[in-house]
Each structure stands twice: as structure tokens, then as C-alpha cells.
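Progress note, sequence design subtask.
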């Protein structure tokens, strides 16, 4: 959640989700990042997944309250994003366009205040989808909802709601999603025994199929440069991750996934190296 206000709807439960999902992968990824004093950032990424290789080059230029980001991948897609902050106090506008599929462009306005935050986005095409989300509350407790309306079919295609409670050493969240068909409850607590690393418990239920999933995970700070993460759910899916800061802002990440209820299946491993000279 934002330290100033309730934050955006996408931030509800984000800390718990990051512990259970962030940096876990089953591909090989190599990234080189650099920046200049003039405000230009360059990123080159090469990914190998399931025997297929792909890559992307991104450049971002920042000047005062404006930023332009251009990303080109090996499939000849070009994504350009324009961001302007503080058009009015506490507001930010984001416009994006992707070529050659120019119909996927979008214009979005974000507004964050001490007790309310909202976003509204409109697709840049003939039959645009309209996305809206809003949260109300404080940095300690917030309630929010999001919805999407398709003008091409004339109905709402998404509506979710969430509640977040944040305390100094813990936070809890409840998210009702998939048009009310699913519910996800998570709780995060910082533990001194993990050197300040958090432990997370998450229960998700899909009402239409009566399917329940319980996932527990934790993050252990080995030293200021090394973090170890692990997660396990009731279906026997075990994940583990090691991340080490090789040099300042350069990270090596190794992760693995195992099926503990079917040991005949081959484990999956992922590797990521981010270099920032």
C-alpha cells in the first residue's frame, strides 16, 4: 500500500503475492541494464523458454515529470509508452500504443490522494474497453473494487473487490474475483527468526468447482546480499528460489519447481542474471 494513502487496487495483497510468485520462473533469462546521467535507461533481455529464444530491447528517457519508454522485441512488436506525472496534483496520465497492432493502445489516468485512489483506462480503438478501479481508506486499512466494461458487447466483463488491513509487522487481504466466483485470503507476517523475512499463508477457493488451494511461503534473509524463498501448496507443488546480489544492483536468481506427489516428473529449473554496470 502507498505510504501516503490507500494505494491503487492492484496493490491490495501485493506483498503476499510477491513472496509467492515474484522471481519464480522456469526459463533462462539474461538482462543487461545501464543508465546515464541525462535520464536515459537502456535494457537488453534474452530469454530461452521451452527451447525457444526471444529477446527485447527497451529504452526509457525521463525528463522532469515526463517519461517515454520504447520496447522492441524479436517478433517485431514495438510498444511505446508516454507517462506524465502531476498533470494536476496527485494525478498521472499514461498513454501506450503497440505496433503493428495499433488497436491495442490505451490511455489511462491515475489519481492518488490521502484517502482515495482511482484509475480509469480507455482502449484506443473503435470499440474500446473501459477499465475502472477505486480504493478508499488509509495506509492501514483500505477497501477497493475494479471493473471492466466492453463497449463492443455492451456488458461488464470483469468486476472484483478487495479489502486490505496493514499493521507494522503484518498485513491481511481478501480479494473476491472472477465475477464473484473466486475468493483469495492471504496473511503476511514479518518474523525475526527469518532475519526480518516474511511468512505468508494464502487460501484460494473457486466456488463453481469447490476447489480449494492452500499455499504457504516464506522469505529468509541469509545476509544483506542473499535471500532464499520457498513455497508449498496442498497439491504438492514445491518451489524454491535463491537470489544473490553479485555486485551493486546486479542479481543472480536460481529457482526450481518440484511435484512432491509425483516424483517421476522432472523438476523445472529457472535461471536469471541481471547485470547493471
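Output:
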Amino acid at each position: 500500500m502507498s505510504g501516503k494513502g490507500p494505494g491503487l487496487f492492484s496493490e491490495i495483497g501485493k506483498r503476499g503475492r510477491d513472496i509467492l510468485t515474484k522471481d519464480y520462473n522456469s526459463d533462462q533469462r539474461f538482462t543487461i541494464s545501464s543508465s546515464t546521467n541525462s535520464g536515459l535507461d537502456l535494457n537488453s533481455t534474452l530469454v530461452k523458454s521451452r527451447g525457444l529464444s526471444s529477446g527485447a530491447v527497451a529504452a526509457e528517457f525521463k525528463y522532469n515529470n515526463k517519461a517515454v519508454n520504447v520496447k522492441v522485441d524479436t517478433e517485431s512488436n514495438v510498444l511505446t509508452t508516454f507517462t506524465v506525472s502531476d498533470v494536476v496534483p496527485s494525478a498521472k496520465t499514461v498513454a501506450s500504443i503497440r505496433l503493428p497492432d495499433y488497436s491495442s493502445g490505451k490511455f489511462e489516468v491515475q489519481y492518488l490522494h490521502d484517502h482515495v485512489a482511482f484509475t480509469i483506462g480507455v482502449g484506443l480503438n473503435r470499440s474500446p474497453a473501459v477499465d475502472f478501479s477505486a480504493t478508499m481508506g488509509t495506509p492501514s486499512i483500505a477497501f477497493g473494487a475494479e471493473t471492466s466494461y466492453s463497449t463492443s458487447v455492451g456488458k461488464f466483463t470483469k468486476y472484483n473487490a478487495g479489502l486490505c488491513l496493514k499493521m507494522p509487522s503484518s498485513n491481511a487481504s481478501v480479494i473476491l474475483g472472477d465475477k464473484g466466483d473466486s475468493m483469495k485470503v492471504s496473511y503476511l507476517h514479518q518474523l525475526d527468526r527469518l532475519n526480518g523475512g516474511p511468512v505468508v499463508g494464502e487460501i484460494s477457493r473457486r466456488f463453481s468447482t469447490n476447489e480449494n488451494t492452500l499455499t504457504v511461503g516464506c522469505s529468509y534473509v541469509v545476509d544483506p546480499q542473499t535471500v532464499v524463498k520457498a513455497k508449498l501448496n496442498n497439491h504438492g507443488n514445491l518451489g524454491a528460489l535463491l537470489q544473490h546480489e553479485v555486485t551493486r544492483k546486479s542479481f543472480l536468481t536460481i529457482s526450481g519447481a518440484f511435484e512432491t506427489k509425483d516424483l517421476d516428473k522432472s523438476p523445472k529449473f529457472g535461471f536469471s542474471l541481471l547485470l547493471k554496470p
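The chain has a mean pLDDT of 93. Work on this subtask will continue into the next period as scheduled.
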